[in-house]
Write a structure and sequence with these properties.
This protein is mainly alpha-helical. It folds into three domains: 37-94, no CATH class; 95-152, no CATH class; 159-307, no CATH class. The protein has helices spanning 8-38, 42-48, 62-66, 97-107, 111-122, 126-152, 159-173, 186-196, 208-234, 251-259, 269-284, 287-290, 295-307, and strands at residues 78-82, 88-92. A two-stranded antiparallel sheet has the order 1-2. Strand 1 and strand 2 (88-92) form a beta hairpin.
Length: 308
C-alpha cells in the first residue's frame, strides 16, 4: 500500500485556496447587504420616474425629489416634458436655419414678421415660446378691438351728401336712359357716377366700411324715389283709392309732377314711354304685385320685353 505524503508546500496551497473562497463569499454577502440598503423606497422610485436619465446623484437633494418641475434646463436645443404616466421626454427646441429660411419664403412674411419669427426660434425654452405666443394673441385681440372701435366712429353720410344722393336717385328713376330699375344694381351705378363726378365727402375706395355705408344710403334713396314715382302713377289709375283730378292723369302732366323742380331731368318722350310702361303694369297686374316689392321686378320684365 502506497503511502500518501503531503508536503508542507502542498498544504499551504490548499489552505490559501480555502481562504480566497471564504473571502469571496464574504465580499458577496457584503455587497448584497449594501445593495439591499440602497434599494429606493416606493416614494423615491415614483419620483425617479420623473427625472431624466442623466439625473444620477440628485437623490441627495430633497427639494428636487419633492418637486421635479424644479429640474429645468437652459439648453437652447431641448426642453423637458412628462406624460401622464410620469415618463420623461426630451422635447427638441432646435430649428435649422434652412427650415426657417424656407418657411419665410413659403408664407411670404413681411420684414417685421420675419424678425418676430427669428426671436421666436431663438427662444431657449418651451415656456418662453408659449409666452411669446400668448403675447401675440393679446396683440391680435388688441387690433381686433381697435377695428371695432374704428367702425363705431367710422365714416358717415353728411347731410349735404345725403341731399346729393337723393337727387341722383331721383334722377336715375326718371332717367330717359334707364332700362331697368332693380335688375342692374343701380346703387353701384350711382356710386360710380358719384366718384367719376368727383363728389366731395365720399369715403376712400379702400374704406370698405365707409363704402358699404354709402351703398346702403344710395339704396334707401333709390327705394324712396321708386316708391314716390309708383305712388303718384298709381294715383292716376282706377286702382287708386284716391285718384288725382282727371286733367292731371295724362302722361305729360304726370311726368312734370314727378320731375317737379328738378331742372336737370328733361320731360322727354323716352321718359313718357317709361311712365306708360309703369302704368301698364299697374293696370294689368293684381294688387299682390302692384302694392308689394314684386312691382319693380315686373316693370323690369316689361322693360326688357319692350326695349330689348
Amino acid at each position: 500500500m502506497d503511502n500518501i505524503l503531503i508536503s508542507n508546500h502542498h498544504l499551504e496551497m490548499v489552505l490559501s485556496a480555502l481562504e480566497k473562497r471564504l473571502e469571496a463569499r464574504k465580499r458577496q454577502r457584503l455587497e448584497q447587504q449594501q445593495q439591499e440598503q440602497q434599494t429606493p423606497t416606493p416614494h423615491r422610485q415614483r419620483i425617479q420616474n420623473f427625472l431624466p436619465p442623466s439625473s444620477d446623484g440628485l437623490f441627495d437633494n430633497d427639494e428636487l425629489l419633492t418637486d421635479p418641475s424644479q429640474h429645468t434646463s437652459n439648453d437652447i436645443s431641448q426642453d423637458q416634458g412628462w406624460d401622464d404616466t410620469g415618463t420623461s421626454h426630451i422635447i427638441s427646441m432646435g430649428v435649422s436655419s434652412a427650415f426657417v429660411k424656407k418657411l419665410k419664403e413659403t408664407v411670404e412674411l413681411a420684414d417685421e414678421a420675419k424678425e418676430t419669427l427669428d426671436k421666436y426660434v431663438q427662444a431657449s425654452t418651451l415656456a418662453e415660446r408659449l409666452t411669446m405666443q400668448y403675447a401675440l394673441s393679446l396683440s391680435i385681440q388688441g387690433k381686433i378691438n381697435s377695428i371695432v372701435e374704428q367702425r363705431e366712429a367710422n365714416w358717415k353720410v353728411s347731410s349735404s351728401l345725403k341731399k346729393i344722393i337723393t337727387m341722383y336717385a331721383k334722377g336715375y328713376v326718371l332717367s330717359s336712359m334707364a332700362r331697368f330699375y332693380i335688375s342692374c344694381a343701380p346703387d353701384r351705378i350711382i356710386m360710380n357716377i358719384l366718384r367719376s363726378s368727383n363728389v366731395k365727402e365720399l369715403p376712400t375706395e379702400e374704406d370698405i366700411t365707409g363704402n358699404s355705408i354709402l351703398q346702403s344710403s344710395i339704396g334707401r334713396a333709390l327705394t324712396n324715389a321708386r316708391n314716390q314715382a309708383k305712388d303718384h302713377i298709381l294715383s292716376t289709375t282706377s286702382k287708386a283709392q284716391k285718384q288725382v283730378p282727371e286733367d292731371e292723369r295724362d302722361l305729360g302732366t304726370v311726368a312734370q309732377a314727378l320731375i317737379g323742380d328738378f331742372v336737370d331731368i328733361p320731360c322727354s318722350l323716352a321718359l313718357l314711354y317709361r311712365i306708360a310702361i309703369m302704368r301698364g303694369v299697374i293696370d294689368t297686374e293684381p294688387e299682390n304685385v302692384v302694392k308689394t316689392a314684386k312691382f319693380w321686378p315686373a316693370v323690369d320684365k316689361e322693360m326688357a320685353s319692350r326695349l330689348g
